[in-house]
Fold:
Amino acid sequence: MHGEATVARPRGALIAWLVFVGIFALLNYAAQLSGTETPDDLAYRYSSSIAALIQYWIIFGVVIAIALVSRIELRSAFAIRRPTSWPRAIGIAILALLTIYLAAFVYERVLSVFGDWSPTEEQGLVPDGWDSSRAGAFVAFFLVVTLVAPAVEELTYRGLGLSLLMPYGTPVAILLAGLLFGAAHGLIVALPILAVFGIVVGLLRVRTNSIYPPILLHATFNGTALLVSVSGVG
Structure:
């Protein structure tokens, strides 16, 4: 990849990362298959935001620890650098976002043929409407989902993960990181579209040589989904 910095990526770091994200995915699938119901008012509970913050700090801490123990240069490994061109990066990000929306639309149309299955409802993160009496809790949840979650997830999968996988070929790195990102959510119906999301954002990271455009796209996607859900649109 033109412009991609060369980073020493010990095999031990890759194994540690794969084990970590693999265990994380298995735990989420176990929780999903246990039959535990996701509360309808998840976005209106302060406890949801606190639990999510704790989870993301643990993820971030483990990923940073993997890089530090392996003595990997952090800025290069996590692609913490400006894109070579912000206008070009924004243009690619918009195209990537539209691709994700199109893929989601087509996937939902296909699912509708086989029954009343919804990837969005399966995850259960977006509320059914607006509750002004619990606005404070929603704002806290919104900030976690649109700021903390995109930053940590992108640094984990399109940052360190993609960098560690890149020596095995860019296509393999993008595909595997995308699939593992999708699996990390522990969902079945939504897995294909989550994997597509991860692959498209992986392409964005490679094309821009920066983690910032993926974080911005991810934040826009999450924030839009929450705002649409409480606006009553759709």
Remarks:
- The longest helix spans residues 135-165.
- The radius of gyration is 18 Å.
- The chain has a mean pLDDT of 91.
